[in-house]
Amino acid sequence: MAPTLDLDFVRAQFPAFAVERLGGQGFFDNAGGSYMCGPVMERLDRFFRERKVQPYGPYEASRLGGEEMDEARQRLAAMMGVDTDELSFGPSTTQNTYVLSQAFRQWMSPGDAIIVTNQDHEANSGPWRRLADEGFEVREWQIDPQTGHLDPAKLDTLLDDKVRLVCFPHCSNVVGEINDVAAVVSRIHDAGALACVDGVSYAPHGLPDVGALGADIYLFSAYKTYGPHQGVMVIRRALAEQLPNQAHFFNGDVLYKKFTPAGPDHAQVAACAGMADYIDLLHARHFGTETDPRIRATRVHDLMRAQEIALLQPLLDYLKSKNSVRLLGPTRAEGRAPTVALTANRPGAELAEALAPHEINAGGGDFYAVRPLKALGVGEEGVLRLSFVHYTSKGDIDRLIRALDHVL
Predict the structure, then answer these.
(1) Residue 291 class from Cβ within 10 Å (0-12 exposed, 13-18 middle, 19+ buried)?
(2) Are residues 323 and 228 in the same domain?
């Protein structure tokens, strides 16, 4: 029988919950950035105190700093089922995607095509769409205007021998539906194209097994995954070796450096090992010992998702009962992330402001998801977005529902 998440243990790993004012709030703005876990903070503090020198030198502080940076890459890559040098860090997912788009611009030939969706937020859409200015064809895989669903059958009508790359999200930051990445990637590969998956809105809900998903590129943000402000990027070897170098010429033969034009943020890269520490802490608490990091990460992923699903369904049921509310995306918790966007009787930002006195921290607006919201018929009023993760409690959900009763 699968264990139940020990929420007291989980919340004890996040210093924010020990802060009097924060601990009493219901935090429902996680899709904009999660709380940072203690192991990440500890590593960041130690690096700034003891390792804040140029890394990879012969003296102790430098050597230890470099080792911690390497540790972050090694451990996270192992948990995601990819090789260490297939994972790299950059300042943000948006910038990582832009750098990749420039590599594809140089690599592709006239007449080649790229497919994007209107379900993505702009980070995994805008940089690729700009390639139309360079003479490449950009095709759009469109969502259902009522449900926001991406129908794989519609992708099939767009795929042909001109398509080099298909870019799509693991899940949308406003629709919330979890796309079947492995199945979609298989369709893409069968058509002879490559797959770029934006995991920014999925990875906070459990570190993905990128090796099992089969994506050629997988991107997500560490600051939404309990870590520091870094973009994490997996580019599988077969593709990375073909794409032209985007970094200093002397780094072109190092996979984890060739798509990072600027030097890494040493402290934040090193601190990302704290994300792996946190996953291992949860595994040890709930499952005991296990030598394979990929298995540990998968078990913790499933543990997080089970907690989220149990809390999400009552919220979805409540919102479905409100005639004045339009809930975007699926109404069953099993098929979506706990990122819940809705429209109601006033603009999303006003709704978020009205919730604040009830100690509910949420956001309103478009969340860089202008294209999907427009496709769904949502105007400038935007949406109220209520997003949570595994450290959210049932009490938080109950408080949220009571607050919504006052403002809707």
Answers:
(1) exposed
(2) no
